[in-house]
Amino acid sequence: MSPKTIVHLVDDTTAGGVMRMLDFIETNPEMARLGSHRVQVVARGRLAAPQLDEEIIVSHLSVSWRNLPMLVGLRARYADRTLIHVEHSYTGAFTGLKVRHRTRFFALLRTAYSLFDRVIAVSEGQGRWLAERGLVREEALAVIPSCVDLAPFLALPGRYGAPRIIGAIGRFDEQKGFDTLIRAFRETADPDLRLRLIGEGADRAALEELASGDSRISFHGYSSTPAAEMAKLDMVAMPSRWEAYGLVALEARAAGRALLVAQVDGLQDHIEGGARAVAGGTVEAWREAIETACKTGPALHIGIAWGRISAADVQRTTPELWAKLLNKIAGHHHSRDAA
């Protein structure tokens, strides 16, 4: 496959998973072999499609009724181009918790996704939901996990002793479930355990109030050097209520840290990669999971070691999956043109 020109459209440049994934796409040597990548910011809710010269247009845009006219315009204006959408947000757990009018919501998703030649799910868990709900045509659906540069995490010495410092990394909001984690941690009895919450968000004051009185719990702001923060931790906890994939989980695996994840959406992918599942999402379930994990043993060590190996494999296979997808699209277009 000859190198392509590829533009990535975004409407949210907040520091987080989407922008870090795009940084990986722009800087990874294997991704560079697929073509030249450019990121273009698009104002959310604009009506007209932007002027674009690239052969392949990749949307990382939010799907909403407000954005739908622009997505329709994008398909109409570039009917001869390849359009791909990467779904970073919507999942089964999100729908169950946050969507009241599901028939209308599913109509929006089916309409929006039908405008694209391919729709990429960022995890197997999310992909199963998209397929089972019939939201994306089977032949149009691909699963490519999100990735970041894992070299700084793979370079860290693994932690194979009994975990004592537990980290929770991400936005301080309802999605991440840090309120449940704080309540669960407060019920643990070991005075030597520590919980570090790393991030920013609207719920910070409420979380600090919830943690008040337990000196073992500390809050730390957003860090532009996540590997340096990971180096301070023995274990990472991710009690998310919904999560399309969970880059923090991938980073924890690469760093050789024990990892506890809620059994939802894309976090389930990390269970096969060495993470320990916490079922139920209750305070009691998380308290028990923390206490059990902190009693280190061979099973924990095996999970940590496998996590490092499998995380490195994700970094290797992500560009391969992109190449496979672009080759398949190129072959389809060639067959169509020949006909």
TrEMBL record:
UniProt entry keywords in alphabetical sequence: Transferase
Name of the protein this chain belongs to: Glycosyltransferase involved in cell wall bisynthesis
Domain of life, per lineage: Bacteria
Pfam families: Glyco_trans_1_4, Glyco_transf_4
GO molecular function: glycosyltransferase activity
Domain Glycosyltransferase subfamily 4-like N-terminal: 69-151
Gene3D superfamilies: Glycogen Phosphorylase B
